[in-house]
Amino acid sequence: MRAKRNLIAAVVFLLAGAWIAPVPIPSASASDATATTAVIVQGTTEAAAHAAVAAHHGTVTQDLWIINGVAADVPAGEVPALEAEPGILHVTTDVAVHVQDANPSPLHAATAIYPKVVGADRLWPEGIDGDGVTVAVLDTGIANVADLSGRVVGGVDFSGGNNPYNDEFGHGTFVAGLIAGNGSSSGGQYKGIAPKAKLVSVKIAGADGSSDVSHVLAGMQWIVSYRDTYGIRVANLSLGTDSTQTYHLSPLNAAVERAWDAGIVIAVSSSNNGPGPGTVSKPADDPLVVTVGALDDKGTPGRGDDVMAGFSGEGPTTADGLTKPDLVAPGRSVISLRAPGSAIDAAYPASRVGSAYFKGSGTSFSTGVTSGVAALLLDREPGLTPDQVKARLLNTAGVGPVGNPNVDGHGSLDAYAAAHAGTFDSANVGVARSLGTGSIDLDRGSLHVQIQTGSSVLNILLGLLLPVYQVLYGNNLTAQNKAFDSVEYMTTNWSGARWYDSQWGGARWYGARWYGARWYGARWYDASWYGARWYGIAWE
Q1: Most buried pick, 29, 77, 129, 287, via CB within 10 A?
Q2: Domain tally for the chain?
Q3: pTM reported for the whole predicted model
């Protein structure tokens, strides 16, 4: 398990530096011949995974057609034979994960100055406030709070519960507030970047803030499937793993790329594992997405005193040597929405700000700020593509705190300049897409799934006090209880309609074919999805 860096816990999934301990596949013995093991089975096709599980007396628990796989319970003694079946690419053990929260001391009093820092407040008088744009928040859920009332327009729960509007952990609500809080509980004092944007809650983690790649995968599937239903133009992913698998093969990278190519801007946290080279997580290592690092605005609207947040992940990317992050945004000692009664709320009562707000730090929050800015651009110019939005954000960024492309990318996010640039250049020209044929286990990295919160002894205490959340780690099931068929996923057209309930879609994906004919000619990552860590924030 990775050691803490400067008291900043590497958080995988969403919020609090979550550490995940892998659970090895138990060895078979006469006494456990009837015991079952939770696995993810990834096949050359969804049908192959289903057939192999059935042949070895297993039970499919979830379909993961996004990776041509299924999650299943299989007799422990049958696992070696299952792995040897023709058409089976990977069999990965399910693991339990838990959160170890961290809580660094603030460098300054927490503020909600970030809309001024990025110039979002200058766009509001022009009527550019996110109205008409929906942002999907792949996180711990979004609580029913006043500052978001009436604007959480849909959701789905892959965490094992059945309520995407209940945030038992507290991270998703905080991120949602940064994106779209309207400040109604504070007379407008604590307002998010796009205060009229709508939100969709894609809940993939419960009370302990932990999740698994199968849920991330299912969430990405759902977002693309329902993008037209809810008008989803932006997705916020405050998560990641320390995987060193090349993006060219990674299933996790392939998923975010498919969503990007479906017309959805994807903003991803760089990680809370910095400083230092090679600390950008996956899928923030993907060349298509907008990878966001964190700066410390020092609680002032001017940029002259800004410095990098010490935990912000830095490039180049480990496997491919790509320059990342793409830009930086405020993420140190920021104020956003509180989820009353959540795990974080209970653990850190001193971090409450009034009755409705909370304070925290992390690249998760910088990412939320950036997602909000993307919503502003799409409000002003709905016809912009994800590549055009990215080009605007990068080409108009202000001078960063450091001036090193692998530390602060193209510089400091500037919403006003991006909205008024009037340019239509496209980023990502000629970028090769991921084949997705790699291993889910390699995508998981060393810690499987984690949440990003921060760092301190309280992290450990939180991990001990909260229940351990068992997640699915099979190679071939989705959280929608569908087997993932990688051939179907990669070689057929993605359907805007049935991307979720059956196979990857009977019609065309995004109006035409996905990249011409087959989705990069290969299967959608003949591997299972790796429980990545979730990157998020440091709670204060």
Answers
A1: 129
A2: 2
A3: 0.74
pLDDT beyond 60 at 39: yes
- Contact status, residue 448 vs residue 187, Cβ threshold 8 Å: no
pLDDT-derived band of residue 213, with 50, 70 and 90 as boundaries? confident
Q: Is 90 a catalytic residue?
A: no
The answer to whether 171 is a known catalytic residue is yes
Residue with tokens 């800015």: 373
- Whether 189 and 284 map to the same domain: the answer is yes
User: Does residue 53 carry a pLDDT above 80?
Assistant: yes
- Which H or E run contains 328? strand 327-330
* Domain assignment of residue 75, given as a range: 18-99+439-539
Is residue 364 flagged as an active site residue?
yes
Task: Dig out the tokens for 459 from the structure.
Answer: 């992290």
* DSSP letter string, 492-538: SPPPSSSTTTSSS-SS-BTTB-TTSSSSTTS-S-SSPPP--B----E
Q: In this structure, are strands 152-157 and 96-99 parallel, antiparallel, or unpaired?
A: unpaired
364, 455, 456, 495: which one is catalytic? Answer: 364
> Cα dist. 440→50, 212, 389, 466, 532 in Å?
18, 11, 30, 27, 9
Asked if residue 428 belongs to a domain, the reply is: no
Question: Do 130 and 80 share a structural domain?
Answer: no
Active-site residue (options: 56, 98, 171, 410): 171
Residue 511: Cβ within 10 Å count: 10
What is the per-residue pLDDT across 229-255, written as a single tens digit (0 to 9) for each?
Answer: 999 999 999 988 788 999 999 888 989
Of 419, 450, 485, the residue that ends a domain is 419
Whether residue 457 sits in one domain with residue 524? yes
User: Is 301 contained in some domain?
Assistant: yes
Compute the distance between CA of residue 526 and CA of residue 87 in angstroms, rounded to an integer.
10
Work out the mean pLDDT of the chain and round it to a whole number.
77
Q: What does the angle CA 244 – CA 246 – CA 251 come to, to the nearest 5 degrees? A: 100
Does 261 lie in the same domain as 209?
A: yes
β-partners of residue 111 are 334
CA distance 471 to 532: 12
408 and 303 inside one domain:
yes
- Do 463 and 414 lie in one domain? The reply is no
Same-domain pairing of 203 and 79: no
Would you say residue 427 lies in a domain? no
Report pLDDT digits (tens) over 414-454. 999 999 999 999 999 999 999 888 877 787 776 544 444 43
Which of 391, 419, 447 terminates a domain? The answer is 419
Where helices occur in 65-169 by DSSP H, the ranges are: 79-83, 114-118
Of residues 504 and 130, more confidence is placed in 130
DSSP 194: S
Contacts 24+ apart (CB under 8 A), 495-500: 496/224, 496/225, 496/227, 496/228, 497/225, 498/225, 499/221, 499/224, 499/225, 500/221, 500/222, 500/225, 500/226
In a domain, 1, yes or no: no
